[in-house]
Amino acid sequence: MNIHQFFTLSLGCWRSQRSGHDPVSRKFDEIYSTANITLLDAENPEALELCEQYDIDPSQTLSPLCVDWHNESRATVTEDRFGRYIVVPVPDPYNINEGYLLRSPGFPETLASESRYELGEDGTFVETVHYRYACGEKRIWFATPNLRLKVSIMRANDGNGLATPSFSSEVRDPTAVPSRFFDRSAIAV
Q: Average per-residue pLDDT in the chain?
């Protein structure tokens, strides 16, 4: 599998169940969500703005993606949450399966971010991101074309903080109509 195939296989509407542990509160968190991943035009203004912000030539990027998401229920939060963000893959010129991801603000990020990605020979996508006070690693792989698995861990940058792990299973909904799940008027653009 190469990075083009990974992103193409990721397109569609995904139903997700995520379990995580917050070591500070000593509680487990369970989130049910829906995410719709779509391919954007290379000339998408938001994608071009991200490239400009990071001084990246848009011709050196792969097709940008848009992720619309909706947390349908969360054990610790009573209201539904919606969001949207843009992802622009910037491959290494010598190895397309490695590079950077530019991401517009969206949950959980409140600012644009840049992360490093690598697609292993076994098809596992690894993303590493550094924030001001924390860093995270996410691993995503396909068990089948319609089942994705994801593990992530967040740690404090000082290395002394507690790790916050989570696991997600994501099932593609082949019958979903994206507008059925997302009220765009509720999503802050």
A: 84
Give the chain as a DSSP string.
Answer: --HHHHHHHH-EEEEEEEEEEETTTTEEEEEEEEEEEEE--TT-HHHHHHHHHTT--GGGSPPPEEEEEEEEEETTB-S-EEEEEEEEEEEETTEEEEEEEEE-SBTTBSS-EEEEEEE-TTS-EEEEEE-SSEEEEEEEEEEETTEEEEEEEEEETTS-SPPEEEEEEEEE-TT--HHHH--GGGS--
Q: pLDDT band for position 187 (50/70/90)?
A: very low
User: Residue 144, exposed/middle/buried by CB under 10 A (0-12, 13-18, 19+)?
Assistant: exposed
Burial of 170 (0-12, 13-18, 19+ CB in 10 A): buried
Cα–Cα distance between 165 and 119 in angstroms, integer? 21
Q: Is pLDDT at 175 greater than 60 in this prediction?
A: yes
pLDDT beyond 70 at 143: yes
Q: What is the pLDDT of residue 74?
A: 56
pTM of the model: 0.83
